[in-house]
Amino acid sequence: MADLRSGLRTGLCVLAIMFSSAAVRGETLTFAADEWCPVNCAPGSEKPGYMVEIVTAILEPLGYEIRYQQINWARALLLTRNGQFDGVYAGTPEEAPGFVFPDAPQGEYTIGLFVRAADPWTYTGPQSLEGRSAGLIIDYSYGEAIEADLQRYSEITYTGGARALEQNIRTLDRGRLDLIVEDINSFAYKAAELGLTDAFRLEETFTRDSLYLALSPAKPGSQTIAGHLTAGMQELRSSGELEAIMRKYGLTDWENQTLDDGQPAID
């Protein structure tokens, strides 16, 4: 591990020279998001989230000080768009139109449909959603097709706040929802944390797409940071540090990740 970190620092020093507009020493960047483990978890914890660790590993050697503030997702987007934060963890172009995005992603998600393990219902297409109560999170993007199907056929309950996913999982467990649509790794991580791993099953998967540190359109340095992140992802991957970070969360590099029989990729 020491050799990997040494190689990463060397590579990032070279990148710092390549960028003529390199980071101002001591410049503080504050990124916000709600809790969405394992992508971004509790600030300051031993496991703050794999995207938090990836971004920190790339930007801190370039002279930036990284801070992470946890607030609800809708407010994180609003305040970042206005320039009060420098970026949001785990953003997508659909959720954050007009934000500045690196060319290379800092994560990936796969949207799945979860039901209680004892529920005999099966997904056979959009019409099978008719009459089913579904739990979604306010201002999250799940993919146009599944969102349209849910809007047409299901009764949707939207949840907000810092513990929205936990609330949806507990509500599903109590039988007050029929299904939840959520990133499969995040659902598996939170269900395990709540001791409810065996209470649910993954019934279907839908959208699989990239996640980014989405940067504020109001900040003049956003394009520079996006460039650092794009170059830094290549260095992290080639050095092996990216794989080391992912394994800390029971995952693998998403470029090498496959889903077997629709099961969550988290160990």
From TrEMBL:
<dbReference type="InterPro" id="IPR001638">
    <property type="entry name" value="Solute-binding_3/MltF_N"/>
</dbReference>
<dbReference type="Pfam" id="PF00497">
    <property type="entry name" value="SBP_bac_3"/>
</dbReference>
<feature type="signal peptide">
    <location>
        <begin position="1"/>
        <end position="25"/>
    </location>
</feature>
<protein>
    <submittedName>
        <fullName>Amino acid ABC transporter substrate-binding protein, PAAT family</fullName>
    </submittedName>
</protein>
<feature type="domain" description="Solute-binding protein family 3/N-terminal">
    <location>
        <begin position="37"/>
        <end position="250"/>
    </location>
</feature>
<keyword id="KW-0732">Signal</keyword>
